[in-house]
TrEMBL record:
This is Transcription initiation factor IIB. Gene3D superfamilies: 2.20.25.10, Cyclin-like. One of its GO terms (cellular component) is nucleus. GO terms for molecular function: RNA polymerase II general transcription initiation factor activity; TBP-class protein binding; zinc ion binding. Keywords: Metal-binding, Repeat, Transcription, Transcription regulation, Zinc, Zinc-finger. The keyword Zinc-finger applies. The lineage of its organism: Eukaryota, Fungi, Dikarya, Basidiomycota, Agaricomycotina. GO terms for biological process: transcription initiation at RNA polymerase II promoter; transcription preinitiation complex assembly. It comes from the Eukaryota.
Amino acid sequence: MAYSQPFPLAQPPPKVQPPTYGPDLAVRLICPECRDPNPAIVEEFSSGDLVCGTCGLVLGDRVVDTRSEWRTFANDEGDDPSRVGAASDPLMEGMEQLDTTISFRDGGSGIARELQRAASRSQASRSERNLLQAFRDIASWCDQFSLPKTISDIAKQLYKRSDEEKLLRGKPLDAVIAACIFIACRQAHVPRTFREICNLTHVSKKVLGQCYKALEQAFNLTPGASATTDRHLTTPAAARGPEDLLVRYCNHLDLPPNVQPICSDIIIQARELGIADGRSPVSIAGGAIYFTCHLLGKVKSAKDISTVAGVSEGTIKLVYRLYYAEKEKLVKEEWVKEGKADLSRLPVDSFSK
């Protein structure tokens, strides 16, 4: 038996329809160039552009392909790598770039280990496996050194060429990789010293120098060779000169921005006068920073500079004494007139300070 509602409403509540979403058919996309009332709009999914088919004007970019994904399983031809898989790597041209990873979870039976061993043997040859391992080591060391991907790619290209031409047969893999990173840093205008590369890769300086000299002769690289023409090509050794180390050293020492250009001018002037010739670039950079800091009143101790540059305090002060003997020739008059520099700030005997 059904009971009626004791207080029925005068009108039943209207049913609320859920909102429906769809394209607004009243909106028409017309090319602003040709203004055709019936435009031929073409969606180029390969480039992600929306193009007018009449005049070719690009009406929009970043078009998302809403079509269904597809794959091909052909063994020989017919597959299109632009639709499925990662982007092709030109450094791995001619090698299989898709890997199969087998899980370690096999219940302790050891089958997974045997499958991994069989898969690694069947997928790539020994030379390809060594090349992939070298690429992984280069990427790992560049990440530890906070080097950009550009240097990593250059180092990989150098290693691949040296491996294909068998330039360093018999040399340790770590030494070859270290030499490639060293050359890549110079070509990218962010040079690193032998000591820094040796500390990173734990390769002896002697072996690193041998590999570097072999690659330099094989690739016909001039000292500090670069792919572009700029100030680094003005002198043969400009790319490995001490002025290229000033940016990093001054940043580590928290020096103001005006110290680095003045210090660079002092180093260039000293080179033209033949002051401190024969000294290593690291020693000259450390001594020049010590000289410039006292000249500008931004005093930094020789111990702090020694920690950053990686040279002894005695070497830094020795270069400073050579600069101090020719201070009138190294310091420009305009610096003194503008109040930036003051020769009276320079200590007379650096070993007593």
